[in-house]
Every structure is written in structure tokens, then in C-alpha cells.
Amino acid sequence: MIVAGLDMGVQNVKVAIIKDGEPISYGLVPSGFEPEKAAEQAFKQALEKAEIAFSDIEHVAVTGVGVELAPRVDSKLSIISADAKAAVYLYPSVRTVIDVGAEESRVINCSEKGTVLDFTLNERCAAGAGAFLEAMARALEMKIEDMGMLSLKAAGTVSISATCVIFGESDVVSLIHKQEPKHEIARAIYDALAERITSMVHRVGLKPDVVLVGGVAKDVGFAAALKRKLETEIIIPKNPEFAGALGAALYALENAGGKLK
User: Fold this and answer.
1) pLDDT tens across 173-215, in order?
2) 220-255: per-residue pLDDT in tens?
3) Claim to verify: residue 71 and residue 102 sit in the same structural domain
4) Which residues are CB-neighbours of 133 under 8 A, at least 6 positions away?
5) What's the chain look like in SS3?
6) Is the domain of 246 the same as that of 219?
7) pLDDT tens, 141-178?
8) Domain that includes residue 249, residue range
9) pTM for the full predicted model
């Protein structure tokens, strides 16, 4: 049996394919102005890697903000549920899931079966998501991946506000004018975002084990800052950006009557 999960994200469209109860391939394409075409391209990537045809897929489950634009929908689920399913599938001991995406962040408490018990969202302001880091990297005139590595060299001597992207950028510019070391400013940026996410975690309660998913999970600067703020170990999957798509694929497998290996 072959099923697929499709995550219609704001920044990227992701696909995960499960064959005979095991994930076998993934695809990712920027959402752009035509998410439906991006979804078709992401499917093409994943299908080529799996060496199968679209017609071989028995069920497609879709999640994400662009569900209505998906080229094929056999079932739908929330990104909250998809994250929880993927997290517990990958790490059965996980009870807290933190998903930091481009424009939204989520913290989820889940059961040993991957059922959502409680959750909170940060969707009113980009200050609590990846867009904040992108704006701050532009203010520092550097690539975001370089900013993450640079922040690891800092001792944490300065701070900025993460209440708003505009305020945060103003703080960064002020620190630049004061000739504060760039690596210290970089750490302050990550600490500010990590503080926002930590407050979300405390709203639902910190229950180990903790897993970090979403595209921002790949940023070493943020991962280090979040670990400092939470004062606990954090698990990061090999492909954290595909958690939503994987969770959707697991849901598709359930709906199609299949079983995991």
C-alpha cells in the first residue's frame, strides 16, 4: 500500500510518501504564488525518488494553510494533529512538540498515541516565527545560516525585544550603532525568539520528551537558544521540516486501512 501526506505550508509545500508502512521519500518546493503547481512539483520530486507513479498512491491526506488549493484531497487534518502524529511516530517518548515555521509557531502536548491533549499558537505576529529571524538577518546584513553559527560564539551580553519585528529590528540597529559585537547581537536575536517560544511552552506545560520540528529547527542558533531557555534536552529529527507532511501521510495510512512496519 502506498499513501502520501501533503503539507500546504505558507513558505513551502512538502510531500511525504509511505510505502508498505514505511516512509520512503519526501519532496519540497517553495509555495510561491501558485501553491497548487508547487504541490504538483513536490509530488513529482517525491515520486521520482520513490520510483513510483502518482496513480500508485491510494490515499492522500492534506494539512497546512493551503488545504483548499491541494491538487488532490482524500482526507484532511489540522497541522496540530499532523505534528503530534509525526512526533510520536519518530520518537514514542515525546510528549511536547514545538513547531516553529516561517510565519507561525505551535506548541503541542500529546499522548503516547499521538493524540493532541493541548496546544497553543503564535499566529498574530511574525515576531514568534521564522520571519523574525529573516528580518533580523537582513538588519545584520548576513545570511540567516551564517547568523546561527555566529551566535554560538557569543556570551549573551546584550538583549533585544521580540515583541514585534519592527521593535526587534530597531533594537538591532541601535546595537549596531553602539558597535556591539555582531556575534552578541546574533545571540540576542535567537534568545529573543526562544523566549517567545518558551512562554508558549509554559502555557501548555513542559512534558518531556521535547521535540523541535519545522524549518527553523534546522537553525543551530535557535536550537541552542531554545535549549538554554527551556533548560532541557531537545530532540531534533533528521528532516524536521517534513513533520507536517509525515503526520499527514500517517493519517492517510490509517484512513486507507494500512499498518506501520
Assistant:
1) 999 999 999 999 999 999 999 999 999 999 999 999 999 999 9
2) 999 999 999 999 999 999 999 999 999 999 999 999
3) no
4) 144, 147, 189, 190, 193, 216, 219, 222
5) CEEEEEEECCCEEEEEEEECCEEEEEEEEECCCCHHHHHHHHHHHHHHHHCCCHHHCCEEEEECCCHHHCCCCCEECCHHHHHHHHHHHHCCCCCEEEEECCCCEEEEEECCCCCEEEEEEECCCHHHCHHHHHHHHHHHCCCHHHHHHHHCCCCCCCCCCCCCHHHHHHHHHHHHHCCCCHHHHHHHHHHHHHHHHHHHHHHHCCCCCEEEECHHHHCHHHHHHHHHHHCCCCECCCCHHHHHHHHHHHHHHHHCCCCCC
6) no
7) 999 999 999 999 999 999 997 667 778 888 999 999 99
8) 1-91+241-261
9) 0.94
